[in-house]
Design goal:
single chain, 429 residues, 0% strand
Length: 429
């Protein structure tokens, strides 16, 4: 999904640019009109994200437009600009540490599912006495080579996503809906081509039954080729799940500042007397002092060049985090911490099942030499179309249908794909 996030980031950057061009610069603090300052304290949200302010869109100005009647306007924040960004984002009623601890359910669930798949291939489908490959050692031994080759295949496939996205979108200059869909389809085509290439590299083939020379090999779970395919798919899906888990932690870290700001603000409100008169005294004291512009000039005068550079670097880092958060929310439709850990775990397991199913289907078509080329080509084309549809759904329609609906639907499709692959290998007989 990295190319989807890249496209969303490009769109978010363009939206911010249009907002800046449309609404001008930040309005200054008008200290001369301090006598008209309101007596009531400004309303601030301290509900831990339960009732956020509405999220602005392109039609809602994030910054005040320039007023030609004011002779001088600088980049001085209004009093309302002190409100943290978290107040416009619905955050869960949890601390950042609690969110991280709940996300630990994702790698745990993925690991337990991995163990289940290992136990399944080691102990299931025992060879019979009067069946082909009856002399195979049982319980079956792990195929480390196939596992490592499958893992390397996914790494190569993932490394190709960025070049494919850059080529299709002309280096990011053509970041539109059609370009994202085309990039997703091309990325899936490269991924499935590499999946087939891994099967060729492993030399997966059906083995003959030495007791019956005239016997025609056909896909069977007792064949060593089935175990090669299984372990190859297991390596592919395991590395994909592990990378997704690490990526999830990195993406959650983008919201750490928002959680910290919210918690700090709530702590301040708890430790401060809720008396409105005391709050008004702070506002009056700020208004009776020197003007906001003069304070900024004084502060800038005492800052060293290294301090200015540090402040600029910090602002740049915050801008990058804001852009990345907007990109994620364009993809998922909601802030990432709002997605339950169970749904995130379901997505990882869904990816593992889908990878296993697609590999089993493609490998069954690849090794079935008694099948016609038309049949084998149709199966591989169906794999490509199915994977492309799922990728496009996750890339473009996820905010519309919702993360829960997409996750459950993808899980059903993945399970169907997995059982279809087992059926082609005769593992359901």
């Amino acid at each position: 999904m990295s190319f989807v996030v890249k496209a969303a980031a490009a769109m978010a950057s363009r939206i911010n640019a249009r907002r800046t061009e449309s609404y001008g610069t930040l309005s200054p603090v008008n200290e001369e009109d301090s006598t008209n300052a309101p007596n009531d304290p400004p309303a601030r949200s301290h509900s831990r994200g339960k009732h956020p302010a509405p999220v602005p869109d392109e039609r809602t100005p994030l910054i005040a437009p320039e007023d030609p009647a004011v002779p001088h306007q600088g980049l001085v924040l209004d009093a309302d600009d002190d409100v943290s960004e978290y107040e416009s984002i619905m955050l869960p009623d949890m601390t950042y540490a609690q969110v991280i601890r709940s996300f630990a359910f994702v790698p745990l669930g993925s690991f337990l599912f991995f163990v289940g798949l290992v136990l399944l291939i080691v102990f299931a489908w025992a060879p019979g006495r009067d069946t082909p490959h009856s002399n195979a050692p049982y319980p079956y031994l792990p195929h480390g080579r196939a596992f490592l080759v499958g893992a390397a295949g996914w790494v190569v496939a993932y490394s190709c996503r960025t070049p494919v996205y850059a080529i299709v979108t002309l280096g990011g200059r053509w970041a539109s809906l059609s370009s994202v869909i085309l990039a997703a389809v091309c990325s899936v085509a490269v991924q499935e081509g590499l999946r087939l290439g891994v099967l060729v590299l492993l030399g997966v083939r059906l083995h003959a039954w030495h007791g019956h020379p005239q016997w025609t090999p056909y896909p069977t779970p007792q064949d060593e080729a089935f175990r090669d395919v299984w372990w190859m798919a297991l390596g592919w899906s395991t590395v994909e799940a592990a990378f997704s888990v690490f990526q999830g932690y990195e993406q959650l870290a983008l919201y750490k500042d928002l959680f910290d700001a919210r918690d700090q603000d709530e702590e301040t409100w708890r430790n401060t007397n809720a008396n409105a008169l005391q709050f008004d005294s702070r506002v009056v004291q700020r208004s009776n002092g020197s003007s906001g512009m003069e304070d900024d000039v004084k502060r800038a005068a005492i800052l060293s060049p290294s301090d200015v550079a540090s402040i600029m670097d910090e602002d740049l880092a915050q801008s990058i985090q804001l852009r990345d958060r907007e990109a994620l929310e364009l993809v998922f439709g909601v802030p990432l911490p709002n997605i339950p850990a169970f749904i995130s775990c379901l997505q990882r397991i869904d990816g593992q099942i889908l990878s296993m199913g697609l590999t089993l289907i493609m490998s069954a078509a690849y090794v079935s030499e008694q099948r016609t080329r038309l049949f084998r080509g149709a199966i591989m084309a169906a794999v490509l179309v199915l994977h492309s549809i799922l990728t496009v759904i996750w890339a473009e329609t996820l905010p519309r249908i919702g993360i829960h609906t997409a996750s459950y639907t993808s899980l059903l499709v993945a399970i169907g794909t997995f059982f279809a692959g087992l059926a082609l290998w005769g593992a359901l007989e």
